[in-house]
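Why do we care about 3D structure at all? Because function follows from shape, and shape follows, mostly, from sequence. That is the central idea of this module. The next example makes it concrete: a single protein chain, its amino acid sequence, and then its structure expressed as tokens.
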Amino acid sequence: MSTTPEHPTAPPATPPQAATGGRGAAHPAPLSRMLGFERALVGFLGLLFLAAGAAVVAVGQGWLGAGRAQRPVTDPLAVGWVNGNAAWAAVAAIAGGIVLLAVGLWWLIRTLRPERKPDVRLDQSPAGRSRMTADALTRAVRTDAANVTGVTRANARMAGTPRNPGLRLRLALEEGTEVRRVWEELDAKVLSRARDTLDSEPLPTAVRLDLDRAPRQRVH
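And the structure:
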């Protein structure tokens, strides 16, 4: 069990039991969206454009020869081939545009796709079919978290996959609440109960703490 704070309003002092989560500790990987492909693609494109820019600067400064710096940006041989094969060039341009459009739409859909809320397997045997639904687990966790001292509102949702689930918690705290006490009570009363329910199932958890400010009173 591992608990990772997400953008807390104040840096909490995390007690050891909240950091380790006792038994069933696991790496909090399922709490992050699967953005590895997107990051790799963006990084590759960034490196590609950086290399292209460096090549342009090198040619423009004459580091690769004064003659190259004086040549047109578009190679005359390439321009001549395009002019002589206009039909094939148009087909290639259209095909490339369609491919880029398809990749862009796929990337957009993949990025905006709602995160799955996996059910949790209670029986880890090959024939085991006992499961707890994500809604049932999050309702129980949300109810327990709302009863923690100093918490005014609580929200919970599942993340990850059925084989490697994770839990997201967002808590609103009253002003003046001691964050360390919230961490201790959350781990002792809420997360430990969830671990007992799942029978030592690894359950990485990310907790976000917000300060619930009292509404301003109007003066009449």
